[in-house]
Design brief:
The protein has 801 residues and is α+β, with helices and mostly antiparallel strands. 39% of the residues lie in helices and 17% in strands. Residues 248-254, 275-284 and 535-545 have low confidence and may be disordered.
């Protein structure tokens, strides 16, 4: 019977590990246990003692971590080896979890006070659906995990142990992944080892045993086809979303790309108490938790956050970790599910959301044409899909009911589907999917500590970029200097709480060391100028594709493209259409626009870093620059009626704010038009009035009477009655803080909501208001105010507004 007590070995090579005897002189172990030497020692219970062994085969790469040792004498006496039964080699081909599996070895956790070894039997279930991308088996312990040890895993020393299922050896233990509180280990499948020619040759030299790996479970032809396609698809998702391009320098030569696991900051989420009641009051809802803790146990999530707050990055992180099968233990409810990322903006041009069999093709999966018929429908039916619906706010207002209908229909047909959907708070109400058990979370701004970590990581990423090699040695200093500068500038710290704006700040600081804009419009303008040619001009790239375009000319063409996208409610444009738009825009700039249109468009695609082309369609690299350019063009052409008529749609919020910023002479007219439309239309009143208020921060100058009219409308929305209203109010920005009432005049429910508003706005005035709230009579208010004030961190020295 296997595993056999006298075949479980302790191995002493480069480090102490474990192993399993394939015969009296053969030991299978992990390669990293013996990676730096040609010999090692092995010992087993009931054996002859420590025996010197030679390493005769070793393979250490992404797919395999195993080694074969041959002892110079028998490790066990003849009477012991005579009791060995033939070893079965097995594999799991289905994705069903297998119970009562074991790995026995000599881990650190079992050492006594003197460091003496003892064995440990780790029992639990093997989950073939976990870590599929890395090609490992996961053994999840059914017992209480050991406590962490200083400096190394408590399972250190278990590497090399055999993993057994149904009496067959199915793997070799190689690692204990982080994020699981020491509750699981991973093993290389023996199929990988047995298929290696070097292993088979070495085994044949020292043994007559034949290695035949048998399936411990069976798959039908259709199941095998589904399984192979799923593994291929998971690998694609892990690669496709496994990297992040910072907003640093967007041209082909200047991109700064870093691994998602390095770039990802586990931001904090606050659960939103429903406006209409969900059986839970705001007092019961946690103030804010890191992503893993907040989403613990949740299967249906509506994630709300401002533009650039990190929603999409979080979705990609969930997709990658789910594809790899290594989600943190807090998110075990999503483990083994197949992630399906649905960026709604990518489907904007299609006729609604396609049926399941066409969805992968519409989403651009390159191997969609070999998808087994009915594959996705079967996954949905089995409840094995994690649906990641990104950007409800990026669908036009009148199309959102179609998205909701699609989701409701899908969840009615496949009730076990897990869903995470994202939107801006103003796009859909928190009860938008009422009746389908969605929990609503708000993405919180980065804390001051998070901002510091973000900056450190951004500048550390320069070391990985060959284009920015000259900055590698100075990257740490640049980041340190920026953090020091921001510590004295409150306005910058407020902007940096948004990850997208924090990226822009890092980029501009890198380019203009010592100078940083203090307002959003100046920051976007400086970043766009950097993207569109300033660095190329400095490096002598003023002429490409046979045409010379100055900065103003490039911006003029980008304005034209962005205006067309915005006026037509789309985020992309067909290549032929783009050429015609560029041709029309070139007309006022000089002769021969028909001849110059294509070279000019290629120049923008190759050199500006603001555009990209995919499958014949052109989009802006970053929506923030599209909105900035569109707003400039709208102001230049006087399309204020269009803006006012679309102001209720969150898709146009940033364009409206930036248009106010671009409108030196007409800002007052635009603000009043927004206020008047809000007055006329009760169903859109709150959203439009708050948008007008938020736009004040973008305006260069506002008539005092206009300012008064805008703020008077906002005062009518204060205090917010609940968390959902507080989230909306925070979008109006810092001017809201001056309108908040005396804390003593608020009910407990209002005070809790106001505390959330103040925290999400941020800055010195918010910190001061939260300090006042800490004296409130309600303990829940005091706790929320204390929490919010602590996250804002020290108030920068230059607190003047």
């Amino acid at each position: 019977m296997n595993p056999h007590r006298s075949r479980v070995a302790a191995v002493f090579g480069t480090r102490q590990g474990s192993g399993y005897l394939l015969g009296p002189r053969l030991v299978l172990t992990a390669a990293h246990v013996v990676e730096e030497g040609d010999t090692a020692e092995a010992v087993v219970l009931g054996g002859v003692g420590e025996v010197l062994c030679d390493v005769v085969w070793r393979r250490k790469d992404d797919a395999c971590d195993a080694a074969l040792l041959v002892a110079r004498v028998d490790i066990v006496p003849d009477e012991v080896s005579a009791a060995f039964v033939p070893l079965r080699w097995g594999e799991l081909v289905r994705l069903d979890a297998m119970e009562n599996c074991d790995a026995i070895g000599f881990p650190l956790v079992q050492r006594d006070e003197r460091g003496n070894l003892n064995s440990e039997q780790l029992s639990g279930r093997v989950k073939p659906g976990s870590s599929m991308v890395s090609g490992r088996y996961v053994l999840e312990s059914s017992g209480t995990p050991p406590q962490p040890t200083a400096g190394q895993s408590p399972w250190s020393g278990l590497s090399g142990a055999g993993l057994f299922c149904k009496g067959a050896l199915i793997g070799v233990v190689v690692t204990a992944p982080t994020g699981w509180h020491n509750g699981r280990v991973e093993a290389v499948p023996v199929r990988v080892i047995a298929d290696d020619p070097g292993f088979r040759e070495a085994l044949g030299r020292y043994s007559s045993a034949d290695v035949a790996v048998e399936a411990l479970d069976e798959l039908s032809d259709r199941e095998r086809e589904d399984h192979e396609f799923e593994v291929r698809y998971r690998r694609y998702v892990a690669r496709r979303y496994g990297q992040v391009e910072t907003l640093g320098h967007g041209s082909e030569l200047g991109r700064i790309v870093w691994p998602l696991d390095t770039a990802f900051l586990a931001l904090e989420l606050a659960e939103t108490a429903s406006r209409r009641g969900s059986g839970r009051s705001a007092e019961e809802v946690a103030t804010g938790k890191r992503v893993q803790a907040a989403l613990h146990g949740q299967r249906r999530i509506l994630l709300q956050g401002a533009a650039g707050s990190g929603k999409t990055t979080l979705m990609h992180w969930l997709a990658v970790r789910a594809a790899q099968g290594d989600l943190p233990s807090e998110l075990d409810q999503l483990q083994s599910k197949v992630p399906l990322v649905v960026p709604l903006r990518a489907l904007a041009g299609s006729q609604g959301i396609p049926a399941a069999e066409r969805l992968l093709g519409e989403l651009g999966y390159p191997a969609a044409d070999i998808q087994p018929v009915g594959w996705l429908a079967r996954l949905l039916d089995q409840g094995r899909v994690l649906l990641l619906v990104d950007g409800i706010d990026e669908v036009q207002h009148d199309q959102r009911p179609q998205v909701r209908s699609w989701l409701e229909g899908l969840l009615s047909l496949y009730p076990d589907t897990a869903v995470v959907a994202t939107s801006r708070p103003s796009a859909v109400p928190d009860d938008w999917l009422a009746g389908y058990d969605f929990t609503v979370f708000s993405v919180l701004p980065m804390s001051s500590a998070d901002v510091g970590m973000f900056i450190d990581r951004w500048f550390a990423s320069l070391r990985e970029s060959s284009y920015w090699s000259s900055f590698r040695l100075r990257a740490e200093r640049y980041g340190r200097d920026l953090r020091a500068a921001m510590a004295t500038r409150a306005a910058l710290m407020e902007m940096a709480a948004n990850p997208r704006l924090c990226s822009l700040i890092c980029a501009v600081w890198l380019d203009r060391q010592g100078y940083l804009p203090e307002d959003p419009m100046s920051l976007h303008g400086a970043a766009l100028n950097l993207f569109v040619g300033q660095r190329d001009a400095q490096r002598g790239f003023s002429l490409t594709e046979g045409i010379a375009l100055g900065l103003d000319e490039q911006l003029h063409l980008l304005d034209a493209l962005a205006l067309w996208m915005t006026m037509n409610g789309t985020t992309e444009i067909a290549g032929r259409r783009a050429v015609r738009i560029v041709e029309e825009a070139l007309g006022p700039l000089g002769a021969h626009p028909a001849e110059q249109a294509r070279p000019a468009l290629r120049h923008l695609l190759i050199r500006s870093g603001a555009l990209r082309e995919t499958a014949g369609t052109i989009t802006f690299e970053h929506s923030t620059f599209r909105d900035f350019c569109a707003a400039h063009a709208i102001v230049d052409k006087g399309h204020f009626g269009f803006l006012v008529n679309h102001a209720h749609d969150p898709q146009y919020e940033d364009v409206v704010r930036m248009a106010v910023g671009h409108s030196r002479r007409d800002a007052n007219e635009l603000l009043l038009a927004l206020v008047e439309r809000g007055d006329r239309e009760p169903e859109h009143r709150t959203r439009i009035h708050l948008l007008a208020t938020a736009s004040l921060a973008y305006a260069a100058r506002v008539d005092p009477n206009v300012d008064k009219e805008v703020l008077r409308r906002t005062e009518a929305l204060i205090p917010p009655p609940d968390d959902a209203s507080a989230n909306l109010l925070a979008e109006a920005g810092t001017v809201v803080l001056d309108l908040l009432p005396d804390p003593d005049a608020l009910t407990a429910e209002e005070a809790r909501a106001v505390a959330l508003t103040a925290y999400k706005v941020g800055g010195p005035a918010a910190a001061a208001y939260l300090e006042r709230l800490q004296g409130h009579t309600d303990p829940a208010v005091r706790e929320r105010a204390r929490w919010g004030r602590a996250r804002l961190g020290p108030v920068p020295g230059n607190a003047a507004r």
